[in-house]
Amino acid sequence: MYIAVILITTFSSTVLCASHTDFQGFLSGTEFTTYNKKIFPKATQSDQMIVSMKYSLIAINKMDEAHGQMHLVGFIEASWTNDLLTAWAAGIDEMMIAQDNVWLPPISIHNTVETLQTLGYRSNKIRVNKDGTHTWKVGIVSKTSCKITMSHYPFDTHTCQLQFTPLGYLEDQVKLENSTSAIELTYFAENVQWWIDQTSISMSTINGASYLTFNLQISRRPGNVLINYALPVLILCILSSLSYMMPAESGERIAYSVVTFLSLVIYITMIADNIPRSSSPITIFSIYLTLMLVMSSLSMAMATLTLRVYSQEEATEIPLWLKHVTSFLKCQKGKNCCSKKKRKSKIGDSSDEWGDDEFDKEEDDESVTEEYTDWDEMQWKDVGGVLDWTFFLLFLIMTIVVAIFFYFPLAFAET
């Protein structure tokens, strides 16, 4: 990428319309020999120098969320008018001159996280026109500070800045202006992790100095995080709730719950090592992962509780409150509630044991009608079955609702 910057900024033809003797004449003439790059390039030294700038972005190298840095590759194209280097000999319209031979505006990146220094390399050349217009292209590999808020990860959006200023000059001496309304993206190579939402340019004056700020708004591409991180966690939590569908007699329910819980713990640990670290503010995605881990823990605990219900001896009386709960849950499930019912019980035979004929046509056997409820016949396995179905639906619905509750606001929130 650095080589591409050098090629773009330095590759240009120096074979112009003039002959080599014209250039030799210029270099030995008074226009060039009397020129001094240390002199401010204005006929009237109090005049203001206007420097027009355009920034072209080539690539987003890296977004360092932990340290709040943005690494960019690009180049600027700056132009200004030099009053002291005009009116050449006939036949020369423009030429390429090494930047060390002419005056340069000491432009620097104000918000860099590296050493503050002026832009340019000794190998750079400046295109000088006969009317005094100087055009300068210089490649930049920048590392700038950027305020990064990770709360909406992986749907986070950030606005970073690249701020230029002429070191040592006030605005009434050198003023930076933008020659375009936005960052130039002609040479930009698409980034696999970020896309560019919009760009803008603003001018400002701080402590009397001129500042030109290029604003870059970027958004993360969430597909990789959703497929590789969020979806497996959701699947593991759904699998955890399926433990209640396993027969209690199989003896594998606890083993299944422990395996799914440990799988979730290991996977969340792997995710934590790969997602950007941020404590202020903490990411909502991290809260979601923690909540899913808590729900899986509760699911495992409830699976243990239901097995204890199944293991109770039939002689052990079921507490009345548990009967109430089981009855209510059966009603919600769509089964018959524990309402009062009637049944008949025989209390004797209708015929004489001797089989006398006079009693053959007597009335039917005497019986008595009893009132009873399902509570009287409720067993521990009935309680366990109702609890299994209830906990399965509860944790399944909670898993889906929590995922929707977290992801929908993240996806559609404006950051």
From TrEMBL:
* UniProt name for this protein: Uncharacterized protein
Which GO terms fall under molecular function for this chain's record?
A: extracellular ligand-gated monoatomic ion channel activity; transmembrane signaling receptor activity
Q: Which UniProt keywords apply?
A: Membrane, Signal, Transmembrane, Transmembrane helix
Its annotated compartments are: Membrane
Region entry Disordered, spans: 342-366
Tell me yes or no: is Nucleus among this UniProt entry's keywords. Answer: no
Q: Does the keyword Transmembrane helix apply?
A: yes
State where composition is biased (Acidic residues).
350-366
